[in-house]
């Protein structure tokens, strides 16, 4: 690596476009929102930057605090589900014969390429009152002659509630969880597992004392890759949740699109960003601890 | 400690037959079920785009009329053309800006390098919704002209797409640069090659796979983006995802399925072209996921 002073012209020619774009079309817009979060609404379009903390205090109003807690709760449940479902999937893929492995990986990765909006929309047809899940249930209901016992079939309300939102986010982000865990399991030293088996450990025991501790860093990556985007969800709760299952992203969007209270939306937006950064700041600690644990063994 | 106890208990029971890992039937069943659940809704959605029923609840026979309707819908067609135009221009810009930024970070030491790298990582981690509203506030505050002739009317969306795409391109290109043998460059320099010559004849050919992967990534990121575009675009400029979103809110007809299928096919075609140009296992999203695992 050389000092930029040696070839300043080359340095600027390479760096300037990126520096310019990053500042003008990313940092400055974020700066505008940050300033606005200390502003007050005066009239429909007038916003005065007064340095008030009112907007941040409003976020701790019980209504919004409830939504903040709900957002965290949904994100935690989603993350847990992604790990619990994703880990066994990653495990099986990592231990499959190479040919099968390629196909299984492709099958898990394929949804990456499909628009999130479309994948969310596809779930509506599955979950709505006259959707495929309810059709199947109705068919089973008729088959088991349950209508004689409990009366005609009542479709389950599966859309526009927290269940739909949780399912939707897991559905969209599961591949994100599988990949880092797959990478970690794939790196695992197989001879350790053989040694454990030779020494008479059961498979479950081997898994608990060897496989799981040695793949902790993969799990840590998966947790972050799911938890952070889940926290900022907007589209999935908007389409599958409705007002009953709004998350913080929907409240932010509403301040800008409907309520027209930009300063408050700006404050919420920055609270969400601070939360994201805080989690990212914890990451090195999390991974270092995991790596330390791996090294100690 | 707990493990030792567990092991003892197992031994007392005489252990058990230890199978090779990954043989359990329930595990395989879970994987099959997961893959089925991931794909079934999309397959059904695509199949039902050929369904001859407006309400689109049960199958009423095969038809392509909803594709005809989709292609004869001027608003939908305009959205499609907008989406493609934005994707092509923002891919082109992201590729140049991202690759140059990667080259600069790879080659030079300079004050504030850590800060710049940190700032470049921001678009990768900032939630879409925050970036979306930032763009909305920014373009409204500086009074970006809203009634420009096409394609200038797409300029604000393109600017936003480049802002979130080029750092991804830079990440992919830097990953490849890490494997570059500096001696090639030195040899060329010793033989009297200019900076330009080195860039064009040595670095660019070496970077080709990463550039293709980066371009594909930028193209699909742009084509797929809904949230940032939704907040950046005015009422007059609509992209395909934004149009589909408003259709979904309004009514669920096979036309929405047809439009969605077209968008999926566009992504698939782009991917196929890109994989033709490079080795299939180096798909951009895999790289992105790997980088995401490393960075955020």
What's the gist of this structure?
The complex is a heterodimer of chains A (about 300) and B (about 300). Chain A has a single domain (about 55-295), classed as MetI-like (MetI-like fold, Orthogonal Bundle). Chain A has 14 helices and 3 strands.
Task: Write up what this structure looks like.
The complex is a heterodimer of chains A (297) and B (296). With 297 residues, chain A is mostly helical. Chain A contains 14 helices and 3 strands. Chain A has one domain: MetI-like (MetI-like fold, Orthogonal Bundle), CATH 1.10.3720. The mean pLDDT of chain A is 88. By secondary structure, chain B is mostly helical. In chain B, helix 7 packs across helix 9 and helix 9 packs antiparallel against helix 12. Chain B starts with a helix and ends with a helix. The chains are: A mainly alpha (297), B mainly alpha (296). At the A-B interface, strand 1, helix 1, helix 3, helix 4 and helix 5 of A face helix 1, helix 2, helix 4, strand 1 and helix 5 of B. Strand 1 of chain A pairs parallel with strand 1 of chain B, so a sheet runs across the interface.
What order do the helices and strands come in, and which of them pair?
The complex is a heterodimer of chains A (297) and B (296).
Chain A (H helix, E strand, L loop, with lengths): L1 E2 L4 H29 L2 E4 L3 E4 L4 H5 L3 H33 L3 H12 L6 H12 L4 H12 L3 H4 L11 H26 L2 H9 L4 H12 L1 H16 L3 H7 L6 H10 L4 H35 L1
Chain B lengths: L1 H11 L12 H23 L17 H8 L1 H34 E2 L3 H13 L2 H14 L13 H23 L4 H9 L4 H30 L2 H6 L7 H11 L3 H24 L6 H12 L1
Helix pairs in contact in B: 3-12, 4-7, 4-9, 4-11, 5-7, 7-9, 8-9, 9-12, 9-13, 11-12
């Amino acid at each position: 690596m050389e000092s930029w002073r040696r070839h300043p012209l080359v340095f600027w020619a390479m760096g300037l476009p990126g520096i310019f774009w990053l500042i003008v079309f990313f940092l400055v817009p974020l700066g505008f929102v940050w300033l606005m979060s200390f502003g007050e609404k005066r009239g429909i379009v007038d916003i005065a930057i007064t340095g008030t903390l009112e907007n941040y205090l409003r976020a701790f109003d019980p209504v919004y605090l409830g939504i903040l807690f709900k957002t965290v709760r949904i994100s935690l449940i989603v993350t847990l589900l992604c790990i619990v479902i994703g880990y066994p999937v990653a495990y099986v893929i990592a231990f499959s014969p190479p040919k099968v492995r390629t196909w299984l990986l492709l099958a898990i990765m394929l949804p990456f390429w499909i628009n999130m909006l479309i994948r969310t929309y596809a779930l509506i047809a599955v979950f709505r009152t006259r959707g495929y899940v309810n059709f199947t249930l109705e068919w089973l209901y008729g088959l088991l002659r349950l209508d004689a016992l409990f009366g005609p079939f009542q479709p389950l309300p599966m859309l526009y509630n927290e269940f739909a939102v949780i399912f939707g986010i897991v559905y969209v982000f599961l591949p994100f969880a599988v990949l880092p865990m797959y990478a970690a399991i794939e790196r695992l030293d197989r001879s350790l597992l053989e040694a454990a088996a030779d020494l008479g450990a059961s498979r479950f025991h081997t898994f608990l004392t060897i496989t799981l501790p040695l793949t902790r860093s993969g799990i840590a990556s998966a947790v972050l890759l799911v938890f952070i985007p889940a926290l900022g969800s907007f589209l999935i709760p908007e389409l599958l949740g409705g007002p009953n299952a709004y998350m913080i992203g929907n409240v932010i969007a509403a301040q800008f699109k409907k309520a027209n209270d930009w300063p408050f939306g700006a404050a919420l937006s920055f609270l969400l960003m601070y939360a994201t950064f805080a989690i990212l700041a914890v990451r090195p600690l999390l991974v270092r601890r995991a790596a330390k644990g791996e090294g100690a063994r | 400690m707990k493990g030792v106890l567990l092991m003892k208990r197992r031994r007392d029971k005489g252990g058990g037959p230890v199978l090779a890992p990954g043989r359990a039937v329930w595990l395989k069943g879970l994987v099959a079920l997961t893959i089925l659940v991931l794909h079934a809704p999309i397959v059904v959605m695509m199949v039902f785009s050929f369904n001859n029923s407006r309400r689109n609840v049960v199958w009423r026979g095969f038809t392509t009329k909803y594709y005809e309707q989709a292609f004869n819908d001027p608003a939908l067609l305009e959205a499609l053309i907008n989406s493609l135009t934005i994707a092509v221009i923002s891919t082109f810009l992201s590729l140049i800006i991202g690759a140059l930024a990667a080259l600069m970070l790879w080659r030079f030491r300079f004050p504030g390098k850590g800060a710049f790298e940190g700032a470049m990582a921001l678009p990768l981690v900032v939630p879409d919704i925050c970036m979306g509203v930032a763009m909305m506030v920014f373009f409204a505050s500086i009074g970006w002209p809203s009634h420009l002739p096409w394609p200038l009317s797409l300029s604000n969306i393109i600017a936003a797409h480049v802002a979130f795409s080029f750092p991804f391109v830079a990440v992919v290109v830097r990953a490849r640069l890490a494997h570059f043998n500096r001696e090639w460059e030195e040899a060329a320099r010793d033989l009297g090659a200019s900076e330009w010559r080195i860039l064009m004849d040595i670095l660019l050919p070496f970077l080709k796979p990463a550039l293709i992967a980066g371009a594909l990534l930028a193209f699909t990121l742009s084509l797929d983006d809904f949230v940032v575009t939704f907040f950046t675009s005015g009422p007059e400029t609509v992209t395909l995802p934004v149009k589909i979103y408003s259709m979904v809110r309004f009514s669920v007809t096979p036309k929405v399925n047809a439009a969605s299928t077209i968008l999926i096919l566009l992504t698939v075609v782009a991917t196929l072209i890109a994989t033709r140009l490079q080795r299939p296992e180096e798909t951009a999203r895999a790289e992105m996921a790997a980088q995401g695992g490393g960075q955020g």
